[in-house]
Amino acid sequence: MAMTEKKMDAMQGHWVLARLGKRILRPGGMEMTRKMLEKLNVSTDDDVVEFAPGLGYTARLTVAKKPRSYTAVELNEEAAALVRRNVEPAYPALNVVTGNAADTGLPDSYATKVYGEAMLTMQSMEKKDAIVAEAARILKPGGRYGIHEIALQPAEISDEKKREIRHELQMGIRTSVHPLTRREWEELLGRHGMQVEYVYENGMLLLEPKRMIDDEGLWRFLLIQLRMLFNRNARQAVLRMRSCFRKYRRHLTGITIVARKM
User: Fold this and answer.
1) What pLDDT does residue 18 have?
2) Which residue has the higher pLDDT, 49 or 203?
3) What residue ranges define each of the domains in the chain, with the CATH number in brackets?
4) Residue 251: CB partners within 8 Å, gap ≥ 6?
5) What's the rounded mean pLDDT across residues 176-180?
6) Is-contact 143 112, C-beta < 8 A?
7) Which segments of the protein form a coiled coil according to its record (predicted)?
8) Residue 225 pLDDT greater than 50, yes or no
9) Contacts of 124 (CB under 8 A, 6+ apart)
10) What is the 3-state secondary structure (H, E, C) of the chain?
């Protein structure tokens, strides 16, 4: 699809970045994704489910570990087609379910490992609960659930400041954004029978040059900059997002949590 000015201006932030060529779209970057996968410890004995795999970067890392099965749950067929295109060549047994992460249609105790990145943050509290409940339902007892999201800090941040940050993020990213504090993320998992085993936080530096080079490599970073140079609306969208992240740098962090189903 051509990157027209009008389309770029109306797109949600993560799709603007994807169309510019950015592959790593997670709040804590590649480092945090790798830490989450390390603690999930996927092996050949695992049945893995990923919620909202997006472009399939983490999926490729996962299937490289040759799990017994890997299932992607994507909301619409267009996104599901992206996953098939990017993952199936490396893992022909790929299973893609087109559906909602809150109601996957998968059987009870279907998986030993479930994870999702940068998707719970965009949901209301009610929807967060529904998605985590679904993860708990499809997990076998003792199975692990990993998340990689945006967190607010410090723990005692005021409700007024939370509302301000959420509003500014929504304006900057062009989509609904409802991050929680670390304690609130842990409480969310705990409500659904999950015992937190691992937590790691990393700066919300998604659009900072050093993080982009670390995540994408120098040449892809330069390519993204070149594409921004020739697309004014895309450039403005990226600068708007980066300005918001910088404004609230003290209050935003990437967070990954891995918990075990009791």
Assistant:
1) 86
2) 49
3) 5-258 (3.40.50.150)
4) 152, 153, 157, 161, 165
5) 92
6) yes
7) none
8) yes
9) 176, 178
10) CCCCHHHHHHCCHHHHHHHHCCCCCCCCHHHHHHHHHHHHCCCCCCEEEEECCCCCHHHHHHHCCCCCEEEEEECCHHHHHHHHHHHCCCCCCCEEEECECCECCCCCCCEEEEEEECCHHHCCHHHHHHHHHHHHHHEEEEEEEEEEEEEECCCCCCHHHHHHHHHHHHHHHCCCCCCEEHHHHHHHHHCCCEEEEEEEEEECCCCCHHHHHHHHCHHHHHHHHHHHHCCHHHHHHHHHHHHHHHHCHHHEEEEEEEEEEC
- Supply 224's token pair: 């993204």
Pairing of strands 47-51, 252-261: unpaired
Any idea which residue has 């949600």 for tokens?
Answer: 12
Tokens of 33: 């994704």
Identify the pLDDT of residue 9.
63
Determine the length of the chain: 262
Distance, CA of 256 to chain centre = 10
- The reply to whether omega before 209 is within 30° of 0 (cis) is no
